[in-house]
Amino acid sequence: MLLHNLVVTNKLLYIYAYHEALADAYALFGVMRDREAVSWSVIVGGFAKIGDYMNCFGTFREYIRSGERPDNYTLPFVIRACRDTMDLQMGRLIHHTVYKFALHTDIFVVAALVDMYAKCQVIEDAKQLFDRMLERDPVTWTVMIGAYAECGNANESLVLFDRMREEDVVPDKVTMVTVVNACAKTGALHKARLVNEYIWSRNFSLDVVLGTAMIDMYAKCGSLDFAREIFDRMREKNVITWSAMIAAYGYHGKGRDALDLFPLMLRSGILPNRITFVSLLYACSHAGLVEEGLRIFNSMWEDYSVMRDVKHYTCMVDLLGRAGRLEEALNLIEDTSVDRNEGMWGALLGACRIHNRVELAEKAAKSMLELQPQNAGHYVLLSNIYAKAGKWEDVAKIRELMNHRRLKKIPGWTWIEVDDKIHQFSVGDHTHTRSKEIYKMLKILSKKLKLAGYVPDTNFVLHDVDEELKLGVLYTHSEKLAIAFGLVSTPEGTPIRITKNLRVCGDCHTFSKFVSAIMQRMIIVRDANRFHHFKEGACSCGDYW
């Protein structure tokens, strides 16, 4: 009988698994007289392929108990299942099995483990395995480069890319997309240009995936001109490409340019999707284009059959809230049929901070804390609103609650790229090797700015201390330290580009405008929300942010 022939049954198993008929595959597997490593591999891999991880893990346990030795074909399937489920505990058990069967030197198995640890954000374990590998292919390098970027250490991603080239490993297009995305996270324009030069030197084709990633990279590194140049050079563009360019204009505060791109997209035959409308509404929100945003929001389903989701409503709450139309924003939240999330309430809370609406802020914060009680950022934002209103007893209560729940505020950092090196600053930082020069420059700026009419806004010092102490804290904000360092370490007349992990504070925004005029420097600031281009005493956001 042919079904007793192991070659035939394995082939049939493979066909079932390939076509995702796992019920049939498992039924056949159950009646097979003989099984070998290939049989187990096909069924384990089949369950992994369709996302049935419970049966994938269960079948693998049966495999180990059967006495069969797992091979470098089966193990990567199970390890990837651990990655996809973020099941670190199971992943460590599989790792133990790898050592037990002496497969810890196999490139395919170890590469899968590196990928698993990286996706589970256990970056040190991933790096340890990576460094021990005797042989590393481009895929493994790419996984490790991407892992550092995902874990918030994009600078290390770029260091790893340099090391990859030093070891004469030739990157492929997937690697380059990963590196480009890492560059976007750092905001380092010099690095972006070096990566761009490498892409051209290796003759990588500017297809939709790579081209779109490069648009995003240049936009997030503060260069809209280069982003648009890449966009215009691309022969083929899809809806994601157009949406990326629209988004780029949006977070640089160029709302009108974003809107002008939309009809060109339609004329090219590309229909918008949900991402396109998020990009358009975001652009309207950050440029104060309220009526245009309302028109686009209302046209989504009527004209383009695109369903609104929570991201679109969040953009609209932000748009109305920034414009001071907070009751409309609240009504939109309460009347919406989509599930409300913390982003929607967060947009309202941010608007309350701008317009000093403490009571409404409390309502928004209460809703946010019900959804995400462990998110320290929500507490901090409400605390800042209380502090700005001088309600120090309420500030103390919020901080006491945070301490009780063991929540910590995310520290603010600002970094700047000078001479191909990233320099990072925190508030009151004295650790930099050129600290004396930095603080000397701040003193010089203090005198010049005072003569020019700059008055420090101590409302942005969120502590109940006297004015003199507030001024001291205010002048050592990380943004100001980075700008001062840029002034002492870069040639006169050249732009200063800084990146902050949080939203830039109002006083630092004013400070940057004055410095741009007095020192005749363009200052480009990328914060958690958008870009600010300061030139000759004005900001590209028009103080609408």
From TrEMBL:
Signal peptide: none annotated. SUPFAM superfamilies: TPR-like. One of its GO terms (biological process) is RNA modification. The keyword Repeat applies. PPR repeats lie at residues 137-171, 207-237, 238-272. It comes from the Eukaryota. Residues 453-545 form the DYW domain. The keyword tRNA processing does not apply. It holds the Pfam family PPR_2. Keywords: Repeat. GO terms for molecular function: RNA binding; zinc ion binding. InterPro entries: DYW_dom, E_motif, PPR_At4g14850-like_plant, PPR_rpt, TPR-like_helical_dom_sf. Belongs to the PPR family. PCMP-H subfamily. This is DYW domain-containing protein. It comes from Camellia sinensis var. sinensis.
